[in-house]
Amino acid sequence: MRTLPLFSLIASLTFFVNAQRFVRFISTDNREYYGDAILPAGTTDAAKSTRARVIDGDILGDFKITDRVKAIKKLLAPLPSERVRTVRCVGLNYVAHINETGQVIPKWPILFYKPFTALNSPSDPIPISAGYQTQGDFVSKMDYETELVIVIKKRAFNISDDEALDHVLGYTVGHDVSHRGWQIDRGGQPQPQYSMGKGADGWAPWGPAIVSTNVIGDPQTLGIWTKVNGVTMQNSSTANMIFGVKHLVSFFSMGTTLLPGDVIFTGTPSGVNLGKANPVWLTDGDVVEVGLENVGTCTNALKYV
Ligand SMILES: *[C@@H]1O[C@H](CO)[C@@H](O)[C@H](O)[C@H]1NC(C)=O
Ligand SMILES: *[C@@H]1O[C@H](CO)[C@@H](O)[C@H](O)[C@H]1NC(C)=O
Ligand SMILES: *[C@@H]1O[C@H](CO)[C@@H](O)[C@H](O)[C@H]1NC(C)=O
């Protein structure tokens, strides 16, 4: 059988051509690299990776996965903030979260934007500046929101649901840091003021890796959770999203071009403080882990600055 070795040769070449988990990191030589993370045995959390195959070129364009392996000293956000021209976020995309906040199920996806200065690494502190801290009778209602994040690889305008995944590089997990004081109490009720409540610098940690659509063929089957100081607060599945990944990409491309590197935060499941009778709002020093199955975790501490 001569076809068998040839087949395995092609299979192994394919393995090196398709990156699985795109990361950006500082290595022990203090230089920055892009890489394809090598997972340690027994975990799919790229935040635990200590090594990666270096990627040469542009992960949003032409690139090559080399056989040079580098140690990971620190994982950075998967792309530099300036390469992400638009951070789109979806409000109200899980029925149980809509219920807990007493709102109605939307007929169309609800969109707001964060500035790209909100993006943060999967491990650095989340800065809380004075205007977002408790002052007098204004309570700093800091909340957590775990979300699946879509990363666009190819321009998309007016595309259909069926075309959507051709435009997606992969998926990662993000933390839509939320301040209910500015979002709602000072939000021009009855309308929420999403961007003032969610758009501050560093309020969108994301990573630890962009996991390729080769690895995650169906993004609507993944466990998604939040832990605050080690205690599970949110624990759901992306199967519960009202508007799935394909529809969000297609809907947002209706009259607006999605560009390579743009990200879409896809809404949070239930379990947030806002939905609780006795909320324990986050404060200085609290550590929040957001996680997505087969992708990994971002773990960031709040820091009053
Ligand atoms: C949401 O609330 C409605 C009405 O109370 C209820 O029928 C439904 O089961 C709830 N769904 C979830 C997912 O909590
Ligand atoms: C959008 O796509 C539809 C369906 O393919 C097509 O009929 C329409 O002309 C397109 N509109 C624009 C502005 O490209
Ligand atoms: C979420 O719930 C599942 C099923 O009950 C459980 O196996 C898993 O450990 C929970 N995850 C977290 C982070 O608590």
Small molecules bound: 2-acetamido-2-deoxy-beta-D-glucopyranose
> Biggest β-sheet: count, sense, barrel?
12 strands, mixed
Task: Provide mean pLDDT, rounded.
Answer: 94
Reading the helices and strands in chain order gives HEEEEEEHEEEEEHEEHHEEEHEEE
Number of domains: 2
Radius of gyration: 20 Å
Helix content: 10-25%
CATH architecture of the largest domain: Alpha-Beta Complex
GO molecular function: hydrolase activity; metal ion binding; oxaloacetate tautomerase activity
InterPro entries: Fumarylacetoacetase-like_C, Fumarylacetoacetase_C_sf
Protein name: Fumarylacetoacetate (FAA) hydrolase family protein
Keywords: Hydrolase, Metal-binding, Signal
Structural account:
With 305 residues, this protein is of the alpha+beta class. It has 2 domains: 6-75, no CATH class; 81-304, Fumarylacetoacetate hydrolase, domain 2 (Alpha-Beta Complex), CATH 3.90.850.10. Helix content is 14%, strand content 34%. The chain is built from 6 helices and 19 strands. It has helices spanning 3-17, 95-100, 161-164, 180-185, 194-198, 245-252, and strands at 21-26, 32-38, 51-57, 63-71, 74-75, 87-91, 110-114, 119-120, 126-128, 142-143, 146-152, 168-175, 178-179, 204-212, 223-228, 231-237, 263-265, 287-292, 296-304. Strands 1, 2, 3, 4, 5, 6, 7, 8, 11, 12, 14 and 17 form a 12-stranded mixed beta sheet that branches. It has a 5-stranded mixed beta sheet with strand order 9-19-18-15-16, with no helix packed on it. Strand 1 (21-26) and strand 2 form a beta hairpin. 46% of the residues are buried. One 2-acetamido-2-deoxy-beta-D-glucopyranose (NAG) binds at residues 95-96, 99. One of its GO terms (biological process) is oxaloacetate metabolic process.
